[in-house]
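Co-fold these.
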Amino acid sequence: MTIYAIQTARLSKRYGNQQVLSNVSLHVRQGEVYGLLGAANAGKTTLLRVLTGLVRPSSGEIALFDQPMQGHAPALLKRIGALIGTPNFYEHLSVAENLDLHANYLGYYNRNALNDSLERFRLGDVRDTPVRKLALDQKQRLALARATFTQPELLLLDQPVNGLDPFGIRDLRQLLRQLNQEFGTTILLAGHLLNEIEQLADTIGVLKNGALIEEVALDTLRSAPTVYIEIVTSEPSRACFVLEQQLAIRQFRLHDEKRLRIYDTERDANQILRALVLQDIPIELFQQRTQTLEEYILQLSHEGRRDAAVDAA
Amino acid sequence: MLRLMQLEMRKTRVWRSALVVIMIQVLLALQMLVAFLTAPVLEFPISQPDLLFVVMLSISKLVVMIYGAVLLNWVVLREYTEGTIGQLFLYPSGRRAVLSAKLLLIGVTVGVTMILGMALAGYAVLALDAVITFLPSRVSPSQISKYAVQMLFHVVTTVLMSFIPLVVGLLRKSQGALLLSAIVLALVVNSNNDGYSLATEPRVQTALALCGLLVIGYTLGWVAQQDVTD
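Predicted complex below.
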């Protein structure tokens, strides 16, 4: 039986006339990394705020760790680490004081945790520096240190790579992998950087205008069938003639001066290649392409919900 | 609750400022006394202990009510204006408990500051009287007990009414609005006319203290329901 770290049913949030979340039914399995993708103002941050009880939903249900979340749920909050929106700190207090305060509020008393966390996020040099004197990337690292300080079971990270330098991004990626693989931490990564999310996520959800338009396992996408065959040739007009007249293929398009794409994916690729070669058509590239995550997301953004499109068809 | 109050004290070191406010009360009381004693014509018979008590009480009320607003700003409102309230409400303690700890800390600090300020100011006045006698007779222990009881009543009412500006500050999310409303309230509460002072009028003080209680109740409810966004 699948255990869900987060499960929502028809979750909606409305501010006045503005519908920020619309019937979101999210399913994050325990122990997985879930990438929540969406453009700015898609509702990602609001969704995270709703999941942590900072914002009350207008309607719908939430269950965390298979327990319904109704109102304030201290036992559930204790199991969550979060970085939502702009990270804010007590600016007059030092880095170490901020983390120590955080641990005290959570009732987490581990002598080594502070030093470990400072070291892991390269904050040891600024441990006694007031937060107001930190640079942007140091503040972001401190926010991540705070979110992961207690090694929570569920980690909610909103745009975690914001402001990080390449080393910080690499370190964060390694840490999240470690937390996920060694401690089984469930991670929900919200953002718009496909590349970052693709490298870590097991499942992605796509949020558009407050609605969750797709939830799909990345493995499913990776093993997706061929979407098109791409041919690069110096004689595209002859190639088109062969495809049309000899092979009776209609679903193809001349993409640019040399590039052809065949969308009739049920055709045998070997047969097409053989026909072109037999006609002495010079082939520079012949490739069966699957859809990239980026193309998939862009397609979803244009078409809306995939199952809806299928139903309509 | 005590643990939450301790954590609040680590964020805002209120006791340092409380010491300063206590000293301000003593100095203002002494300055007022000296001004009365050196005036060519005494408008009021300041040499009467009862009147002296009222003057000291008004000064203390005025100072600690403004101090209360400063604390409300530091301890409560700044969490909203600087955005740290979101993180604070992610902790398992619960919104009401966190806010209750904050308000309790402010109440205790304001109350203790007023008691110590008035006690020290009273001690300084009596010490001064021992050097340059201006009171008609020595203040008896029974008189001191009477003033202590009156002071306790005023400490409780002042503490409660000092929460009234919180509702303005929170609804407007404005430090300026909070401080301004506190100053206006403190001036109104301590206003006097021909020797009649609102600062010692028990019905007015009690009514305002009840308003303070209502504000506390309203704020606790409001905070529990409010969405926390940037």
